UniProtKB/TrEMBL annotation:
Organism the protein comes from: Rhodovulum iodosum
ACT domain ranges (all copies): 30-105
Reactions catalysed according to its record: 2 pyruvate + H(+) = (2S)-2-acetolactate + CO2
Job of this protein: Catalyzes the conversion of 2 pyruvate molecules into acetolactate in the first common step of the biosynthetic pathway of the branched-amino acids such as leucine, isoleucine, and valine.
Subunit record text: Dimer of large and small chains.
InterPro entries: Acetalactate_synth_ssu, Acetolactate_synth/TF_NikR_C, Acetolactate_synth_ssu_C, ACT-like_dom_sf, ACT_dom, AHAS_ACT, AHAS_small-like_ACT
Enzyme class: transferase
Enzyme Commission number(s) of this protein: 2.2.1.6
Family: Belongs to the acetolactate synthase small subunit family.
Protein name, per record: Acetolactate synthase small subunit
Length: 188
């Protein structure tokens, strides 16, 4: 076997480390955006992402102040640190946007998601689905002789794990709300 040819001026990395040290890692970030609750604002925010080819992994929107007519948009996206900084800067320039918070870098935060799972099955599969639902603290919100609808709340990882376990037991359909997130502690 010929010796490994290392060019002059290159750093010595393990042959098993196939990552390019010059490429920034892609990171997952949760952004909380406070906006005016008016027609077209969500379309402008989404347009910013789609127009530049950024992906949205999760998007939730709800009015949070009825008197002040403001809504909170929670966006989970991925990108290099430079891309995330660019997204935050561009969001901040949209006129009806009041605040942009990157919960991922601003400190500890709490993220939760609600999901509904329809699982169809009989016999042992039905019993196993109920047993796993109990372990995951999922609630049965509808039941027929052939199926259940489970409601589960938790981190996206918990919801994903529950989905994976329900798949062989007759998972028929999933509905997920997307991420709701808040910074921990007294800061807002």
């Amino acid at each position: 076997m010929p010796p490994l040819n290392i060019q002059k001026g290159t750093s010595r990395h393990s042959a098993y480390d196939l990552r390019d040290p010059n490429i920034e890692a892609v990171e997952r970030h949760t952004l909380a955006v406070l906006v005016d609750n008016e027609a077209g604002v969500l379309a402008r925010v989404i347009g910013l992402f789609s127009g530049r080819g950024y992906n949205i992994d999760s998007l939730t929107v709800a009015e949070v102040d009825h008197e002040g007519h403001t809504s909170r948009i929670t966006i989970v996206t991925t990108g290099t640190p430079a891309v995330i900084d660019q997204i935050k800067a561009q969001l901040g320039r949209i006129v009806p946007v009041h605040e942009v918070h990157d919960l991922t870098v601003e400190g500890p935060s709490v993220e939760r998601e609600l999901a509904l799972f329809k699982v169809s099955g009989t016999g042992d599969k039905r019993v196993e689905a109920l047993r796993l639902a109990d372990i995951f603290r999922a609630n049965v919100v509808d039941s027929t002789l052939e199926s259940f609808i489970f409601e589960i709340t938790g981190t996206p990882q918990k919801v994903d794990a529950f989905a994976e376990l329900m798949q062989p037991l007759g998972l028929v359909e999933i509905a997920r709300t997307g991420i709701a997130a808040l910074a921990r502690g007294g800061a807002g």
